[in-house]
Amino acid sequence: MNQADAIRTSGLTKTFGDLAAVNGLDLEVRVGEIFGFLGPNGAGKSTTIRMLLDQIRATSGTAQVLGLDIRDGSLEIRRRIGYLPGDLALYPKLTGRQTLTYFARLRGGVSPAYVDELAERLGADLTRKVGEYSTGNRQKIGLIQAFMHKPELLVLDEPNAGLDPLVQQTFHEMLREVRDDGRTVFLSSHTLSEVERVADRVGIIRHGRLVVVERVDELKRTAVRRLDFEFAAPVPTDLFAQVEQVHDADIDGVHARVSYDGSVNPVLQAAMTHEVVNLSSRDADLEEIFLTYYRDTTTPEVAASTGADHVR
Ligand SMILES: Nc1ncnc2c1ncn2[C@@H]1O[C@H](COP(=O)(O)OP(=O)(O)OP(=O)(O)O)[C@@H](O)[C@H]1O
């Protein structure tokens, strides 16, 4: 194992009956990076995390977290990481403060002053009973307990749930500080915009398989680009149908919005068969590349029966 890997999985697989929730996952998360684990609902993100934390057993494959085998080293792994589960269960009769004190006692080595600092930064109300909390405040308690012992690795399952934009900003600052400290963040999300803002690299998972791992800046560089045309007269709706580089062409009379990748020349050549009066291009948009990987929204079962499981 590479010393620089905080998480490494090899052929990690979990099946539930006929369903391969996670299918042959090969993943490397490096020490000191913020890694975004991105995929729509049901893609296999939580199942992966639960295997890494030994909450469920892999059907096959192996994995190490902080160099430790996920089965043999599970106790030490839990001690050394901070974890925010997707379905955080809290005792409703305790206040936020009592809840955090309880977690801190279980862990040991937590500075109360640091807990206060985190609570203040996130604007968490620790005085009320957890049962009376909003989703956002519950999430803040979950984040504080994950961060409070300054773990080497943070594993966060959908951490943004219920956080308002200002708190999200603070939370992202906290993630960057963890990275600047040489520690690692593994962040699962189905929201591209969240991951795009904060992650160094992303892995996109779909139907239990990793379809791409890439640096965010590189994804942006190679992402789908957009040209908006205005023509002198209405153009046929299939004007770009033969252009291989074109992903989508939305043509409405004299206006055409075209997304493409690769060379722009064939796109322009097709457009120039008509009189162009205006042309604007837009920067690469990660949302579009994300959609490229998710173009097929059919379920695995349907995809298997129609053979429509194409990832571009
Ligand atoms: N205990 C289980 N028994 C049966 N199927 C399960 C179980 N846990 C998860 N699954 C299925 O495995 C697939 C992956 O689920 P998982 O929760 O890992 O997805 P996810 O990417 O985390 O999505 P979400 O954001 O909705 O939590 C889904 O089809 C889910 O229904």
Spatially, the strands of the biggest sheet line up as: 6-7-8-3-9-10
The tally of structural domains comes to 2
> What is the CATH class of the largest domain?
Alpha Beta
How would you name the CATH homologous superfamily of the largest domain? P-loop containing nucleotide triphosphate hydrolases
* Biggest sheet statistics: 6 strands, mixed
How far apart are the termini? 31 Å
> Number of helical segments?
11
CATH architecture descriptor text of the largest domain: 3-Layer(aba) Sandwich
Bound molecules: adenosine-5'-triphosphate
Helix content percent band: 25-40%
Shape, please? elongated
Order of helices and strands: EEEHEEHEHHHEHEHEEHEEEHEHH
Word description of this protein:
The chain folds into 2 domains: 216 residues, P-loop containing nucleotide triphosphate hydrolases (Rossmann fold), CATH 3.40.50; 59 residues, 2-Layer Sandwich (Alpha-Beta Plaits), CATH 3.30.70. The C terminus is likely disordered. It has a 6-stranded mixed β-sheet with strand order 6-7-8-3-9-10, sandwiched between helices. It has a 4-stranded antiparallel β-sheet with strand order 2-1-4-5, with helices on one face. Strands 12-13-11-14 form a 4-stranded antiparallel β-sheet, with no helix packed on it. Helix 3 runs parallel beside helix 5 and helix 4 packs antiparallel against helix 5. It contains 11 helices and 14 strands. The protein is an alpha/beta fold and 312 residues long.
